[in-house]
Amino acid sequence: MKQTILDAVKDYFSPVSNLFKAKSAKPKDANEAMFIQIRDNGCLDCGSHDFLEGPTASIAMNIKCANCGSKYNIAPMMQFAERI
Ligand SMILES: [Zn+2]
């Protein structure tokens, strides 16, 4: 079942589920895996941690690698990232 944005927001604000989240080492999907990789290792293409902030919509924002120009849409609250 696909998680909606509302579910993710509820999830984020629930301390109990955050406890479980902290114990879970395995990302729940490819978007979360991508978010964690960008957060920990920087740009997927060049490893740069220097990002330019683009347009922001509610909980999501567009970022662009300052080094190689790769673009991502991320939602830190949901630990979500995708290429754009
Ligand atoms: Zn880059």
Describe it for me?
The chain is an alpha+beta fold and 84 residues long. The chain contains three helices and four strands, in the order αααββββ. It has a four-stranded antiparallel sheet with strand order 1-2-3-4. The mean pLDDT is 85. Zinc ion binds at residues 43, 45-46, 48, 65, 67-68, 70. Zinc ion (ZN) is lined by residues 43, 45-46, 48, 65, 67-68, 70.
What is the average of the pLDDT values?
Answer: 85
Beta strand count:
4
Strands ordered across the widest β-sheet: 1-2-3-4
Given the C-alpha coordinates, what overall shape results? globular
What separation lies between the terminal Cα atoms?
24 Å
Order of helices and strands: HHHEEEE
Structural class: alpha+beta
Percentage of residues in strands:
25-35%
Poorly predicted sequence stretches spanning 5 or more consecutive residues: none
Largest sheet: 4 strands, antiparallel
Q: How many distinct domains?
A: 1
Radius of gyration, Cα only, in angstroms?
Answer: 13 Å
